[in-house]
């Protein structure tokens, strides 16, 4: 009997030991799986973060890169000397600089913010994308370069200040000393006393060419 009991006890201890080893083995396996899963998750987050940062960087690069305007066509000069853009002048709002096919531009994609154009005179260059939005609202933009006479600049500034839906600023890259622009319209004038100044203002300040007549020329950008 004694030997039977000893045998039974030994067998039970062996089973218990086997079960303990099996349990320890499962615990080790579970720890390894947990560690592996954690490593995979962390690696995935790291890769995802890199991809997200890179995507944001690419998006910012695209926004910071100047794009060509969707404006296509050419100017046709009328008998009155006014040049009319024949072609497409798109009106999309963009967040980047635009390379316009004319200088100063007379239309095309532009910033969501317009320049104040309620008789505003700017003594420094302004952004084309903001000025084009002002033209969309029906403003006339008076521009001049370094070849313009100071007397003409002063006289035109005084006229602009008295005329709602106009603005004035220097544009060094333009071809002629003094130019007038509206949406899709442009002409050169010889000076402040040129009668074509009044004629251009009369026809194109909030004229028929205006894409958004009545839109504001205030509450925009001051410079």
From TrEMBL:
InterPro entries: DUF3105 (IPR021454)
Biased composition (Basic and acidic residues): 14-27
Pfam families reported in the protein's UniProt record: DUF3105
Keyword terms, alphabetized: Membrane, Transmembrane, Transmembrane helix
Membrane spanning residue stretches: 32-53
Positions of the UniProt region annotated as Disordered: 1-27
Keyword Phosphoprotein attributed: no
Residue stretches of biased makeup (Polar residues): 1-11
Domain of life, per lineage: Bacteria
Protein name as it appears in the record: DUF3105 domain-containing protein
